Amino acid sequence: MLEARLEQASILKKVVDAIKDLVQDCNFDCNDSGIALQAMDNSHVALVSMMLKAEGFSPYRCDRNIALGVNLTSLTKVLRAAQGDDILTIKAEDAPDVMNLLFESSGEDRISEYDLKLMDIDQEHLGIPETEYAATITMPSNEFRRICTDLAAMSESVGIEASKDGVKFSCNGDIGNGSVTLRSHTSIDKPENNVDIELTEPVSLTFSLKYLVNFCKAAALSNQVKICLSSEVPLLVEYNLSGSSYLRFYLAPKIGDDE
Amino acid sequence: MARTRSTKPSTAAPAADADSSRSKSAITLVPHSGEPPKVFILPSKATPEARIVTLPNPRTSQPSRYLACPDTGIYEFKRIAAPKSEPRSWLIEASTDSDQAKTGDNASAGSQVTMGSELFVATALDPLFLVLPALADAKASKGSEKPKRLFLSSDDHLDKLPQESSHLSEILRWDTTRRLIESRMSAVCDTVDAGDESMFRLNEDKLLEVIYQKAKRMSKSGLPPSMEDKFVNKVLEAPLMHRVSTASSTETDASSVSQTSTAATSIAGEQADETVTSALQASPETVELQKLKTAFEFICASYIPSGLADTLRQSFTGTGGPVDFSPLNDYLASLEKLRSETMAVRAQDYSRKRNMDEEEDEARMEKKRKMEEEKKKKASESRGVRELKKVNTSGMKKLSHFFQKK
């Protein structure tokens, strides 16, 4: 059976909030190392990969590998009943029909318990190799979100151009064009505002802004976001959670698109 | 927790035994027998010598139960029961002044509840019907138009009835019963005296007359309401139309009025014939004729073997019959014509519309179903997922192109 206690319900709330607009149904794969999730959107051009390591829970117990197939909209409804600072416990039997969620509010001695019906989801798993990216940009997640939403107002797609000068986000739409350029920036007072660009070779790729805006919903999870680019390879947008847990998004680049 | 499981049942079993034996001693439960007791109403004039006997049913030749009384004749049982959907049972209270209750030898069995909801009422039956199959001899009459029938003694006739599980020979030992049966036989047969024995041969005209008289009496004394409703009123009812000609609407009015009037003042069928032919509508006479026909049909269908019943029906309603059915037939013919006309008008009215309706309905239902399905599907996907479906993904390769499937 599975029993996972999360001190902050907000982590799961935010993760599910970030994924639910990309994926409809997905499996939470639970094993002794933690809870993992991998799912693609309907068009199979974007992929979300989540890993909540066992260390992030206290305690964490999983005797056997369990796949919890959930509808994320339904899970959102249940999680809405939890306060951000509630203690969240996920429980499930070995061959579960339901996933049990327990919210404990330490301040108010309030305990709420929900059973969410599970579903059988047949999903293909992709093996994602460790890739050496040509460019790795680390920047404030809010900054990335702002760039994406601003440019999305003008165009469907954004060109990301990483060079030793900096990283340039540019778009070309019906009403005109625009671009945002960021340079490396290090602040000692506010390290969360750092912009760091690691470059082995310059890259220039085009991506769908709608998807990027969607990924940015995870900005609440982490102050910093890591964007990894290599030509002819999907973009990786990574949000680090506490410890070595992460939420990663992959997006296929637009190739041969003249616009 | 240390206790082993194997010891448990051995201690539990005798306890259970003791329980059951105790309950046995406390309450005596009569074991449920397969057939619940039946409730009969027997005629008070039947003598104590009356017996329930098995005789072949005149219609089906299957062994059936009858009540035979040496003095008052033979009775058939009519089963009255509530429909299966309304389960009922009888609460039977023993009358306190009965001998049994006084002596108290069977006091507990006096009052009881029976599971069966049926009530069997013994009603008088003309013994003629019982012997009719023998007289008619269905096998012989089937072949030719006018079967050759021989004069036979009553015993020879009765031997033709199926003997299997029949108590006929027993009840014939009662002199009164034998005399009763023979007298009834003579009512429908030509008889010849041969020595001290009478020989009988069925005369169909006599039989027809007897049945006709029975039917007449039945229709005069009033058919049961349900029967009258279904076989008389329904049959004679003219169809209701939007564009009914005035003639037909007055016809229906007349029929309903006339029916009530005939119930009060029974007019002889014979007398009224002239008036009927002059005015073609559901007059009291037509209703009377239909009642008579219904009564006759009922007797034929209930008590007379089917082969014989067919010939009787033909001669009864035919031209040479005892009653002239032409007014009724004329009325029914005009009614039929009217009905087919109405149907045609209605079909014209509705056929096109209904077809359209059905198709539309189907289409609408299909649409509705699809809408609901879609709604359900939509409810399970978030707004974001829906939005992403609209995104132009041209030029974007699927991720399975980049990453290998596991």
From TrEMBL, chain A:
Subcellular location field: Nucleus
Keyword hit for DNA-binding: yes
Domain of life of the source: Eukaryota
A biological process term (GO) from this entry: maintenance of DNA trinucleotide repeats
InterPro entries: DNA_clamp_sf, Pr_cel_nuc_antig, Pr_cel_nuc_antig_C, Pr_cel_nuc_antig_CS, Pr_cel_nuc_antig_N
A Pfam family matched in the record: PCNA_C
Residue ranges of domain Proliferating cell nuclear antigen PCNA C-terminal in the record: 127-254
Keywords noted in UniProt: DNA replication, DNA-binding, Nucleus
Main localization, broad class: nucleus
Annotated Proliferating cell nuclear antigen PCNA N-terminal domain residues: 1-124
GO cellular component term, pick one: nucleoplasm
GO molecular function: DNA binding; DNA polymerase processivity factor activity; identical protein binding
Function, as annotated: This protein is an auxiliary protein of DNA polymerase delta and is involved in the control of eukaryotic DNA replication by increasing the polymerase's processivity during elongation of the leading strand. This protein is an auxiliary protein of DNA polymerase delta and is involved in the control of eukaryotic DNA replication by increasing the polymerase's processibility during elongation of the leading strand. Involved in DNA repair.
Family: Belongs to the PCNA family.
This protein's name: DNA sliding clamp PCNA
Source species of the chain: Hypocrea jecorina (strain QM6a)
UniProtKB/TrEMBL annotation, chain B:
This protein's UniProt keywords: Nucleus
Stretch list, region Disordered: 1-38, 245-270, 351-406
Domain Rnh202 triple barrel as annotated: residue spans: 41-126
GO annotations of cellular component type: nucleoplasm; ribonuclease H2 complex
Biased composition (Low complexity): 7-26, 245-268
Task of the protein: Non catalytic subunit of RNase H2, an endonuclease that specifically degrades the RNA of RNA:DNA hybrids. Participates in DNA replication, possibly by mediating the removal of lagging-strand Okazaki fragment RNA primers during DNA replication. Mediates the excision of single ribonucleotides from DNA:RNA duplexes.
Entry annotated with the keyword Transit peptide: no
Phylogenetic placement of the source organism: Eukaryota, Fungi, Dikarya, Ascomycota, Pezizomycotina
Family matches, as Pfam families: RNase_H2-Ydr279, Ydr279_N
Principal location: nucleus
InterPro entries according to UniProt: RNase_H2_suB, RNase_H2_suB_wHTH, Rnh202_N
Domain annotation Ribonuclease H2 subunit B wHTH: ranges: 129-312
GO biological process: RNA catabolic process
Compartments, record wording: Nucleus
Organism this protein belongs to: Hypocrea jecorina (strain QM6a)
Protein name per the record: Ribonuclease H2 subunit B
Gene3D superfamilies (alphabetical): 1.10.20.120, 2.20.25.530
Bias (Basic and acidic residues) ranges: 369-390
Protein's UniProt keywords contain Nucleus: yes
